[in-house]
């Protein structure tokens, strides 16, 4: 746990967010139309210090890695131009020089500043500090404040920056001391357009008046939940407060911390908000007749891939898979594992879900999301081991599997046991286990279990999609966000000989990667094998690969 104390003094802050709630998916259509506003250029300054050796400050476990991971995902998935200062690069002088360089930004720029490291709060001076690399804690029996970064100085820099939007993310102790009042804006298309055009100065902190954890598996809990949201959200367009709303209950559940967010009281803040936009959003616009479904067919999705009542209703209207037909998604209901220690159960579930999410290709329904469904079929969680539960859930969520499990202590180690049940037959399809001692072994254990779950999924619910060639040389398939698809997902391209007979043979032709997608369809870029230069343009199928 970080032993530091930090209070970000950027003025009186009005918090924009309230309790965690579901938000509608927003796409590139929510952005300003041509002529309303020029596109923004996105920049990030990520700062992370774990090594405080010989300074009097204790070393931190994950801060440096948190900053590196944050910069990587912002660059690769959101097109940010990233300046990274970690460990010995993150001296006081280097940070101030980097901030000074940001003075070259202009009205068409947006800047995210991420800081992970020690902080300090002086009650007498009512002043907060960020602690850079090499900064001593004490000098001649007095706090070595000359080595530190005063947040009042950072406030002046942030106010003076010419960028339209500046977002501060601080993973440090006591960051939310000045938050007061809470309000969650209603996120309509009009709101996103206005928020993007109007200048803003915002902050997200990992905690309120409290120490915060620096003891995740690879990243702090706060950093990991932000990374998860940035990587796995269905939204192409979202705001900073959307992130805070999505992660706040999860961080609280795992750490007891209260994630806070709000606008800075600054002359540069005019009431807008920092808007994120995925790399592909708006870059390639498919023809409406090829890939865009009718408006009334869209499912509004939130933290999961949509509320279960909408998902159930929509699945009931879909026909069986086949050429030109809508495809039902594969569903995995994750009900476990359970155990005696609630904190440990939460961490294990979080890591298992994280690894399951990386695979894609199916809709993952978590335990909490099934409450409404269980009430509807008059089953409680205590009855989930009953085979009737799987059968009843299977009636509402066809093509689905349920993951049950337990965490069992064995000596000084813990064993995670999971089993996969077919909802159509209530039959146990597979049973696997993995053990860990320290938490640094947990991610590896969950990764092995997730791989086994995917093997079971592909054996029990093999994914085979009919593909059509386009004039552009790409492929189209009925597979989109509704099905759990993701940009970059890869399939094997095959053609079938003697289909439906005992002599049926699948001939591999190459691979295809999803370029873009909407709710129900995807456009893929094929990479044909050299041996398939004379390939057919019909009878093409996409097969899921592990």
- The CATH architecture designation of the largest domain is 3-Layer(aba) Sandwich
The average pLDDT score comes to 75
The major sheet is characterized as: 6 strands, mixed
Count structural domains.
3
Proportion of residues in β-strands: 25-35%
Overall description:
This protein is of the alpha/beta class. The protein folds into 3 domains: 13-277, Rossmann fold (3-Layer(aba) Sandwich), CATH 3.40.50; 331-460, Rossmann fold, CATH 3.40.50.10070; 464-544, Thrombin, subunit H (Beta Barrel). The protein is built from 12 helices and 26 strands. It has a 6-stranded mixed beta sheet, with helices on both faces. A 6-stranded antiparallel beta barrel has the order 21-22-25-24-23-26. Strands 17-16-18-19-20 form a 5-stranded mixed beta sheet. The longest helix has 19 residues, at 442-460. The radius of gyration is 25 Å and the shape is globular. The model is unreliable at 1-24, 32-38, 174-183, 208-216, 280-307, 319-325 and 379-386 (pLDDT under 50).
Topology:
Blueprint (H helix, E strand, L loop, with lengths): L12 E3 L25 E8 L14 H16 L2 E6 L5 H10 L7 E8 L2 E4 L4 E4 L7 E2 L2 E2 L5 E2 H10 L4 E7 L7 E4 L6 H9 L2 E6 L15 H12 L4 E3 H16 L4 E4 L11 E3 L10 H4 L16 H9 L14 E4 L7 H18 L3 E4 L4 H6 L10 H10 L3 E11 L2 E10 L5 E9 L5 H19 L3 E6 L5 E3 L12 E8 L7 E13 L4 E7 L11 E5 L2
Parallel strand pairs: 1-11, 2-3, 2-4, 4-10, 10-12, 16-17, 16-18
Antiparallel strand pairs: 5-6, 6-9, 7-8, 12-14, 13-15, 18-19, 19-20, 21-22, 21-26, 22-25, 23-24, 23-26, 24-25
Helix pairs in contact: 1-5, 5-6, 9-12
